[in-house]
Amino acid sequence: MPSSSTPPEQPPSVPVPVTPAPVALPEPWSRAALTVVVPTYEEAGNLPVLVRRLMSLDLPGLRVVVVDDNSPDGTGEVADKLAVEFPGRVSVVHRTAKDGLGRAYVAGMTRALEDGAEYVAQMDADLSHPVGYVPQLLGTLLATNAGVVIGSRYVPGGSLSEQWGLRRRLLSGWANAYVKTVLAIPVRDVTAGFKVWRASSLRTLDLPGIESTGYAFQVEMHYRAFRRGQKIVEIPIHFEDRVAGESKLDGAVALEAALRPLRLRRAENSRR
Ligand SMILES: Nc1nc2c(ncn2[C@@H]2O[C@H](COP(=O)(O)OP(=O)(O)OP(=O)(O)O)[C@@H](O)[C@H]2O)c(=O)[nH]1
Ligand SMILES: [Mg+2]
């Protein structure tokens, strides 16, 4: 019998994983023709981890298209080896020079649509988008008439890596608020990069006509979907910090991200 001065025994503190185990989708949803497009620039350390995690999901219809911009660290060759390791499931689009995230996505999505994908996912290579959410995103798309389902940091239940300091949190929150003020898109995480599109909805967005070269691509895609009346659904995710390598967000990319919403609004106004 413990004395009254002995504190009650505490359960051992077990860290609670914030990223859930993948949900199991029922047949035939689990067999859906889903292609995950992954743009890479200097992601040689992260890409094999990401691709193996994707391949181990219980989604036999899942394919990966890597779009590499001739990364100096050899990510392109790493991707080629993964294509050999997973024949018919992993393919690589090689481009000759760093040309921006937006252009890489347009190239990868175009390839995915040409190859018959019915659903197209977007993911960063740096492991900040946890693979465990992919079946949830796909299942939500299949259960609704949404054109796109977004893995959102800013709906209830969504969260940011604890590694993110106050400066980055403020910058991300401010960027979201700015875009929503300028373009009035009813999306909580309007700069999000982790999502699954319906192929039929992507086809209506005129991918070759996308003007954004860098990160503004995410906003331009949401804006186009919204203007065309597509349903946009958000589900909460935990956003991890990148595992290895460095961010590619430079001054030119940030400037485009700041100016693009204004240009999109001006173009819309002049059409009225
Ligand atoms: N092909 C290609 N991929 C790019 C380019 N710029 C960025 N990427 C990739 O796009 C994804 C997102 O880029 P990140 O540098 O992680 O950008 P971020 O997530 O805003 O920044 P961090 O949170 O600091 O990592 C990563 O997979 C990059 O490798 C580019 O010019 N070409
Ligand atoms: Mg990143």
From TrEMBL:
From the UniProt record, which GO molecular function terms apply? Answer: dolichyl-phosphate beta-D-mannosyltransferase activity
The source's superkingdom equals Bacteria
Q: Which GO terms describe its cellular component?
A: membrane
Keyword Phosphoprotein, does the record have it?
A: no
For the Glycosyltransferase 2-like domain, which residue ranges apply?
A: 35-203
Q: Enumerate the UniProt keywords alphabetically.
A: Glycosyltransferase, Transferase
| GO BP terms in the entry | glycolipid biosynthetic process
InterPro entries of this UniProt entry? DPM1-like, Glyco_trans_2-like, Nucleotide-diphossugar_trans
Similarity section: Belongs to the glycosyltransferase 2 family.
Identify this protein by name.
Answer: Dolichol-phosphate mannosyltransferase
**Which source organism?**
Nocardiopsis flavescens
